Amino acid sequence: MLRFIVRRLFQAIPTLLVLSLLVFIWLRSLPGGPAGALLGDKATPEKIDALNKVLGLDQPLFIQYFKFLGRVLTGDFGSSLISGEPVLAEIGRALPATIELSLAALLFAIVLGIPLGYMAASYRGRFLDNATVIGTLVGVAVPVFFLGILLKQVFAQDLALFPPSGRQDVTIEATRVTNFAVLDGLLTQEWDASADALWHLVLPAIALGTIPLAVIVRITRASVLDVLNEDFVRTANAKGLQAPIVRRRHVLRNAMLPVSTTIGLQTGLLLGGAVLTERVFVWGGLGSLLAQGIERRDYPRLQALLLLAAVVYVLVNLLVDVSYAIIDPRVRTS
Amino acid sequence: MMTLLNRKKRRVDELAESAGTSLAADALRRMARSPVAIIGAVIVLLFAALSVVAPFIAPKDPYRRYPELVDGLRADFIPGPMPGFLLGSDELGRDFFSRLLVGAQQSLFVGVGATLIGLVLGMLIGGAAGAFGGWVDSWLMRFTDIMLSIPSLLLAISIAALASRGSQTTVIIAVAVTTVPIFARLLRGAMLAQRHSDHVLAATALGVKRRTIVFRHMLPNSLGPVIVQATLTLATAIIEAASLSFLGLGDPDPDRAEWGLMLGNSQRWIDVRPELAFYPAIAIIIVALGFTLLGESLREALDPKNRR
């Protein structure tokens, strides 16, 4: 098992290397190059030349790339043009908010999605199944940001059931430990802070989790239908094994392989949806950093976020492969 | 016993019916019977027709501001439906209904443009990988892996952000690039699956030229999944383009009637006139749903497992 993980880790290295090269090229193809991007409105040809010297941009490209790689590996992404703060510090502060939101969305999608998909498959062709399938088709057609706007308007403004924006009520003076609002409340035993943070999480999590939910339901349904037709399920049923055991040991376990891949893929995609959701709910996580970075063309920040997203994606895929190996031992040897 | 015999008879009848029909004709026949496919096709056709005739049937000039609509009113008030203005005014005193109609054209243009560019580039990459195999294949696929390792919306954002000023072209290109690796992988997979299939082996044994095998045998037989994906991509491309507009990466021209932009602008007025957000969103959802339904039923119809 350990050997499998190590091997997969090594396989991820070339991908990440080429990716860093792409981001490097991306920075170089910006209007005015990185110096122009750094100077922004104040850019004049003389200033760009001077800054190019300082930044070492007059050196051969491959030397520049290795220096860039060295900086990236030591975590030096430069300073944000907006706040003047090191980008990494900014990201570190915003990251917990996005992780919290993504985990909540994912939890919503998985906890609801797998049982729904399973039920739809068990009642194939009946009303419940048809309704679920139609629901999933509509679910992926709804733009994330509109769902956010809609939920906010109906449940926060009109019905006033949930808070419309933010991570926590401003009147709550919560102690910050990890910047995970819910976790901090638990750690410091400020229960009201935790509850309030959870309350704020509901609408954004539903908005962000709906597309993964729809996808997970569909994959679970298709995958369970496939497995139900397998010989070993027929055998298990025929030899009189109790239905719950057949369901758990034979059907679900085998049907979970494609589902876990999908969950992994969706986790990687969440960051894209988070940008939109965070904007609607004024969430203050990575998505807000990104949105603000786009508006002001803050390239050091964008570059760091881009690399971070890719690294997360590659790691998530790695986790998916490892979970494969746990669910299905045959994967380990191949 | 009787039922079994009947079932067998029906199966033979069906086989006879489908004998001699091509896969495409067979798929079309099956789609004509599927309500999902018909609903999808109707939505898509209506949408396409609408985007062609929109400028002619729009009751008012979608770009003209009617000062009489907003003049003398409170700054936070936008008038609703009234005679001559079916859905009322937008925030700048323009006919909202006409803008909604013309928006269909914009969405179709962006969706089709992005999908076509992505399709052509993806097929070139995937086709080369599938036809040549070997190191060409492994390099090209490593390349697509890396493109796929960035979430598509983030990839689109980073490409759109390259332009110092957003425009419709940058949106189309940004969305197109995100679809390239998917088309490439699909076509490559379908072509590789054929390399060792009997008809390719037979053609090779007969001494048919490589180029002919690739273009006459492998490529046409691999197009099914690509066409399905293209249909589904039209839906995601329209949503993704709207998302870019919403984030302020689209064309900043306030005259442009684009559903994503209308939706983004409406957020400020959501307490006053929620319809300004509602209608463009419903339009996006219906169109995306139409392409999704069509694509899914196409996938089902082309699946040889369902062929009878």
From TrEMBL, chain A:
Principal localisation: membrane
Membrane topology listed for this record: Multi-pass membrane protein
Keyword Cell membrane: yes
Transmembrane feature ranges: 9-27, 101-121, 133-155, 197-217, 304-327
Pfam families: BPD_transp_1, BPD_transp_1_N
Alphabetical keyword list: Cell membrane, Membrane, Transmembrane, Transmembrane helix, Transport
Compartments (UniProt record): Cell membrane
Family annotation (PANTHER family): DIPEPTIDE TRANSPORT SYSTEM PERMEASE PROTEIN DPPB-RELATED (PTHR43163:SF6)
The protein, known as: ABC transporter permease
Species, as recorded: Saccharothrix xinjiangensis
UniProtKB/TrEMBL annotation, chain B:
Membrane topology according to the record: Multi-pass membrane protein
Domain ABC transmembrane type-1, chain residue ranges per copy: 104-295
Transmembrane segments annotated in the record for this chain: 36-58, 108-136, 143-163, 169-187, 226-249, 276-298
Location, primary (coarse class): membrane
Entries under InterPro entries matching the protein: BP-dependent_transpt_permease (IPR050366), MetI-like (IPR000515), MetI-like_sf (IPR035906), OppC_N (IPR025966)
UniProt-listed Gene3D superfamilies: MetI-like (1.10.3720.10)
Entry keyword set: Cell membrane, Membrane, Transmembrane, Transmembrane helix, Transport
Subcellular location: Cell membrane
Protein family: Belongs to the binding-protein-dependent transport system permease family.
Name the record gives this protein: ABC transporter permease
Taxonomic lineage from the root: Bacteria, Bacillati, Actinomycetota, Actinomycetes, Pseudonocardiales
